[in-house]
Amino acid sequence: MDPQTARRPGARPSWYGPLLYTAVASVVLVGVTASGTTHVKAQARGGTGLVSSSSSPTAGAQAADASSRTPEATVESVATTASPTPTVPAVDRNALLAEAMESVAVEDGARVSVAVLDPESGQRAVYGDGSFDSASIVKVDILAALLLQAQDAGQELTATEKSYATAMIKSSDNVSASELWDAIGRAEGLAAANERFGLSGTEGGDGTLWGLTQTTAADQLALLQQVFGEESVLNEASRVYLRGLMGDIAVGQDWGVSAVGSEPQFALKNGWLPRSQTGLWVINSIGRVTVDGHAYLVAALSQGNSTKAKGISLVEAAARAAVSSLRDADV
């Protein structure tokens, strides 16, 4: 026997280690079943029994997938499958105003138009069309035109012009209105200013007849925006000046749109004119009112009224209906 192959009693042959490794590896490989489950079998140390364990690739994949589901992913999944938010139909505010006006009594032969704006939301509504004699509400337009001309010239109103303006707005003095009508260039000067104010349906009266200026409720609402709004061709000083005069109307001339307000803060200008040919009254009222701390701009025009009192009742009722139509729609 080759001395190198000789071994001591009990010693393991040199081929034992590799053969044992191969045998164990064979057991492990044979343990992979068609179902995909791996069975690992090994000789228990110090015994003849086999230790067996198993693991499922499918279960492992599920566990890994679950661990990858973050809260954000879950929310995104829910959001993409949630029902879309239903579209809220637009509110037809003109229709709501027309419905509100159904309860307003109008004499036979009379007609009325009213426009309202919520400056905060920008919502507005208009009822009625056609032109109306302006009567004295044109005095606001005359003063706005005068102030715009002064701005363009880089000047302020003269003391005389201020005196006329105060009497014209606060007391509705006609002589003062005629003086300032001439000062702005009458109908031509009014038209030039109104083009910049955005009034497209107003036409100045012929010659000295400023009270027969033709206008619409929508145009008067646009004029009020120039006076009370921030986006105006009138500068802040001009707007503050006009607002101050409209907020200090003489006692007895503070009817009209002021009937809407639940608070004493209002600024307005009214117009009243009995037509000599028919004896019927033109009654108009424009201004800003406050209801429960919320401001509205309102213009109510009417003609064909049998009396001044009935005309006043008509424009006040129309103004209430106009403001309520906006308030009810927002509830």
Structural overview:
Strands 4-3-9-8-7 form a five-stranded antiparallel β-sheet, sandwiched between helices. The chain has a two-stranded antiparallel sheet with strand order 1-2. The model is unreliable at 1-81 (pLDDT under 50). It contains eleven helices and nine strands. Helix 4 crosses helix 11 and helix 5 (138-153) packs across helix 7 (174-184). It is α+β, with helices and mostly antiparallel strands. The longest helix is centred in the last third of the chain and has 23 residues, at 308-330. The protein has helices at 16-30, 57-67, 71-81, 93-101, 138-153, 159-170, 174-184, 186-197, 217-228, 236-246, 308-330, and strands at 38-43, 50-55, 111-117, 124-127, 132-133, 214-215, 266-274, 281-291, 294-305. The chain is 43% helix and 18% strand.
Strand order of the largest sheet: 4-3-9-8-7
Could you give the distance between the termini?
Answer: 113 Å
Helix-residue proportion:
40-55%
Major sheet details: 5 strands, antiparallel
* Strand percentage: 15-25%
User: Helix/strand/pairing class, anyone?
Assistant: alpha+beta
Rounded radius of gyration (Å):
44 Å
- Element-level helix/strand string: HEEHHHEEEHHHHEHHEEEH
Give a count of the beta strands, DSSP E runs of length 2 or more. Answer: 9
pLDDT averaged residue by residue: 82
Shape: globular
The number of helical runs is 11
Low-confidence stretches: 1-81
